Amino acid sequence: MINFLQTLSIILVRPQYSGNLGSVARAMKNMGLRDLRLVSPKAKPDSSEAHRMALHASDILHQAKTFHDLAEALSEFDLVVGTTRRTGKERDNVATLRNFVSQVKASPQIKKIAVLFGAEDTGLHNEELAHCQRIVYIPSHQDYPSLNLSQAVMVLAYEWFVSDATIAMIESSQEDLADFASIESMYQDLESLLDESGFLNPQNPFHAMRIMRNLINRASPSEREIRTLRGIFRQLRWWKERG
Q: What's the confidence (pLDDT) of residue 17?
């Protein structure tokens, strides 16, 4: 199973405030991201302010890589993504953050992704956005659409984390789904037990079984869950036979 959290790197271009560096590091660690890169930073990752805001995420700051040139920072990535709050007809490759995450997760051949955030006062310059194959924005209220740098990183990291957790649950479920033969054997056991107990209507035994099938099928049971159900049926039958 692909660990999508390891594919994503956060790159801050010309960050100005050390406190924001610490807050970004904390947001990243909250959501399982590890790789922080700084391009021409005015802020200092080793400052007391950065570490105060990072709290227990100082290790992210210690491991952060610093580059003087954006192209050098991006040399090893398969996909470079820029962030902006400005959209318009000249930026037809702009997608919402949620749509972007969905698109990237559907392309597992992309192994390393860089997401760029610009300086707090100006964002990314046009020449910096020119390095990006994709541009994303985070929808926000029109009265005050601009997010703080660490807030923007947190929202992006959260969307990435939640999507990764969803994929992990889906893949785990798919790997462990019960096969047709196991489910049908379980239904035979259930029908036999319900018939012995007198629960089924002899005139229409399929009505109750159809309800039970619909209920269990919606749950997409795993092999372990089917084995557990059949174990319950065996125990009930043993209890009945014991009198």
A: 96
Task: For residue 201, give its domain range.
Answer: 180-242
The per-residue pLDDT for range 102-144, each reduced to its tens digit, is 888 777 677 889 999 999 999 999 889 888 888 899 988 889 9
Give the chain's domain count.
2
Cα gap 228→161, rounded to integer Å:
32
Which residue blocks in the chain are alpha helix, DSSP H?
18-30, 48-54, 58-63, 70-73, 97-105, 126-129, 149-175, 180-197, 205-218, 223-242
CB 107 within 8 A of CB 100: no
- Give the sign of the dihedral formed by CA 25, CA 110, CA 135, CA 11: positive
Domain at 213, CATH number: 1.10.8.590
Last residue of a domain, one of 175, 194, 214: 175
Shared domain check, 96 and 208? no
Say if residue 59 is in the same domain as residue 156. yes
Phi and psi at residue 114, to the nearest 5°: -110, 130
User: In this structure, are residues 77 and 9 in contact, taking their beta carbons and an 8 Å threshold?
Assistant: yes
The predicted pLDDT at position 94 comes to 82
* Alpha-carbon distance values, 35 to 112, 157, 224 (Å): 11, 12, 38
Residues forming beta bridges with residue 96, ordered by sequence position: 137
What per-residue confidence (pLDDT) applies to 91?
A: 52
Specify whether 53 is located in the same domain as 167.
yes
Sign of the CA dihedral with 46 first, then 50, 53, and 57 last: negative
